[in-house]
Amino acid sequence: MLAECTVVVPTIGRPSLDVLLDALAAAPGPRPAELVVVDDRPQGPPLTVDRPGLPPVRVVRTGGGGPARARNLGWRTARTGWIAFLDDDVVPDPDWYERLDEDLRDLPADVAGSQGRVRVPLPADRRPTDWERGTAGLATSSWITADLAYRRAALAAVGGFDERFPRAFREDSDLALRVVDTGSRLVRGQRRITHPVRPTDRWVSLRVQAGNADDVLMRRLHGPDWRERADAALGRRPQHLAVTAAGVAALGLAAARRPRAALAAALAWAAGTAEFARARIAPGPRDRAEVTTMALTSAAIPPLATWHWLRGVVRHRRVAPWRGLPDLVLFDRDGTLVRDYPYNGDPELVRPVPGAREAVDALRARGVRVGVVSNQSGVARGIVTRDQVDACMARLDELLGPFETVQVCPHGPDDGCSCRKPAPGMVKTACAELGVDPARTVVIGDIGADVEAAAAAGASGVLVPTPVTRKQEVAAAPRVAATLSAAVDDVLAGRW
């Protein structure tokens, strides 16, 4: 089973990555097909992942896009049926490979994902701090990608992780809900990992309040019952709102010279803040550093949480369901990727249009597969030979490749074939060859036949007009972009 599984580890280069890799290298049992390490640092020297005992390793870089984008790049570049995600700060048990193999083997077709089991070790010689108790909650959380394997097809069907979640927070719950909404199930396996409490500074509880904005996005996307479905507790936001309102009222009443009312509001704020601080201090170690930190942050958290919640309300007033990137972009050749020399059989005349290389590489960098679908009726007309066409395609691959699929129709307009655009044959064949759903495919071309072929195959079409494009074709196209680069930019922005 592991031969059909890729392990994806997103990382920002923390020292804990070495601990994880050492554990994976030392573990006995079968190995997965590949280990993909996604370097999500904005810059820095290449990561070195070189340990005997690891499965075949590949390192890819996002340039810094956050955990959702990093995981998306990892699974998009994988070619196995299962993708097992591990965070870079966990330690798999020695039998993790064996248990993963058992967890995934013979799962029913309606099971889209399998979650591992998490343990969070807490200090044995003292009470845990507020941060340690928060981390311990991972042991009972649902569908966290610290250790979660998904069918690649399930990820592709929903567009993967929603990259509008910028932090390692809620993006996993959002994905799980969207996968379940397709009618699939998620189950818990028997494999285990240890999630140590990561060292941090005393102000971490203030930074995590930014997640309140993500909660607003979850509500917009999944409705008011999302917490129940995602097994996510409400927390103290209602109390934070009340304490913040009391504090604001106290300041406002004082400014309005209403001292008694201001005093009452101030007492309400103080009581709420004290209750919050006591609830955080009581179960903790109660040493001076912890008590001081809890007292200070308990005063700051309610207004900060409220601010981030209001920021989310404003930012996420209108949100569309996440579509993600397409799995495959198919390009017309002549007039789209290269300058159009009618019935060209000379590889020396294969000359990319401005920005073609950058556009195709931008798709590859995000894990989107690319291919070519080209009508070549010059073969049927006796103007060029198939060998000449293949030589020109080889030159195209040298200049802009590699392309994962190249489809050529050598027939003429009157041959009645099913492959010549606007017929859908080449688009469907390309999708079948790569195992891609046409609904997750985009076709980019310069004439109406290109977008018509896309629509006939169930794919999306984008027209990039040139001087030979007719006005009627532009008017009828579902999407139009001024240049090839602009078309690809729209695709990468989710507008397809």
UniProtKB/TrEMBL annotation:
GO terms for molecular function: metal ion binding; phosphatase activity. One of its GO terms (cellular component) is cytoplasm. It is found in: Cytoplasm. The keyword Hydrolase applies. InterPro entries: Glyco_trans_2-like, HAD-like_sf, HAD-SF_hydro_IA, HAD-SF_hydro_IIA, HAD-SF_hydro_IIIA, HAD_sf, Heptose_bisP_phosphatase, Histidinol-phos. GO terms for biological process: carbohydrate metabolic process. The keyword Cytoplasm applies. Residues 6-121 form the Glycosyltransferase 2-like domain. Belongs to the GmhB family. This is D,D-heptose 1,7-bisphosphate phosphatase. It comes from Geodermatophilus dictyosporus.
